[in-house]
Amino acid sequence: MNKILTDRGIQISTTEAFNLMYDFRFDEAAREFKWLKVEFPEHPIGDFLLGLNEWWRIVPDTKQTRYDEGCHLYMDEAIDKAEKMLRKNRNNKEAMFFLCASYAIKGRLYAEREKWVKSAWAGKKAIKYLDDSRGEENINPELLFGDGVYNYYSKWIHENYRSLRPILTFFRKGDKEQGIRQLEYVANNAFYSRMEARYFLVQIYAMEKQPGKSLMMAAQMHSMYPHNSFFHRFVARNSFALGRLNEAEMYAKELLTQVEEKKYGYGANDGRYGAYILGYIYLNKYRDTEEARRYYEESIRFALENDSKETGYYAGANLALGKIALAEKDYQQAVKYLGEAMKNSDKKSSTYKEAKEELETMTKALKAARKKSGNR
């Protein structure tokens, strides 16, 4: 069987399907990918790309699970076909690539479901086949994607998830800076992994406090795929983080419009971002307390709908509403909102410290007022 992974004709033929998938036109993309299963029934490429299509249905809101089964089934089919190819030729680098990629997607999905043992097992398999598949010059840009993701996230998980450190002792150590460089190379040189690398880089740049880089990449991707809520959301977030409030306002309003119109991929997850951004803008730019209150309350409603009370936007919206209530001398509401902000934020965070300080200042002021009135 000729090599399919590096066949330029197949890459050109599947370009439109990739564009459809990343623009969240999944049914159309699936129809395009299915011809690969018909044309190459014994090769894993068709099943893998259909599984990737299912994964991207999950991306807009990873809390939803209705596409999990389809994603796993397609990846399992890809794994079975790749293993058969490998039994015929133990040095088949293309089969190893699809085994690595399929196990990696399964591992990502297991991690989203916090099935850490299954995720670690799938990750271990992915790394094995990643290492085995080295040495094929033509697919090196694709292989670097796996290396890049591993190098960055193995280190990031070690720094941010103390409870998972015992599992990580069974894996080689990563290098975040090297991982970022590898993903940047893939983002510019690979075919199948190009957009996946950009998907990760948009998030990594934001986590590494480089919102300018994240915005630049997210804006490029949003212009290419205007129906992709993931990139739309990051354009809004990064514009806001950089203080580009006119742009942030425009993107945030677009997010809420898409949520209201029930566009695919847009939901409560996007709504809490958009509403929070608009709450901040109306309070601090337009000095319109009523509109700010409405948007902050809407952000809280979206967060509760999305079961996202632990996020900074939920705590931030409560802090803002608590401060508004204080300014209006509505102390009962102030206690409610500030208490909720403290309850759902890390004690080391600025949100927690500010909410605590506001509550303590309010309590002292009320005690002083009562004492003063009692002495009259």
Describe the structure.
This protein has 376 residues and is an all-alpha fold. It folds into four domains: 1-134, Alpha Horseshoe (Serine Threonine Protein Phosphatase 5, Tetratricopeptide repeat); 139-208; 212-308, Serine Threonine Protein Phosphatase 5, Tetratricopeptide repeat, CATH 1.25.40; 323-369, no CATH class. It contains 18 helices and no strands. The protein has helices at residues 8-22, 26-39, 45-58, 68-88, 93-112, 116-132, 140-160, 165-168, 176-189, 194-207, 211-224, 229-241, 245-260, 268-284, 289-305, 312-327, 331-343, 350-374. Helix 16 (312-327) packs antiparallel against helix 17. The relative contact order is 0.06.
Please render the helix and strand layout as text.
Layout: H1 8-22, H2 26-39, H3 45-58, H4 68-88, H5 93-112, H6 116-132, H7 140-160, H8 165-168, H9 176-189, H10 194-207, H11 211-224, H12 229-241, H13 245-260, H14 268-284, H15 289-305, H16 312-327, H17 331-343, H18 350-374
Helix pairs in contact: 1-2, 2-3, 3-4, 3-5, 4-5, 5-6, 7-9, 9-10, 10-11, 11-12, 12-13, 12-14, 13-14, 14-15, 14-16, 15-16, 16-17, 16-18, 17-18
- First-residue to last-residue Cα separation: 96 Å
The CATH class name of the largest domain reads: Mainly Alpha
Categorize the overall geometry: elongated
Q: Provide a count of the helices.
A: 18
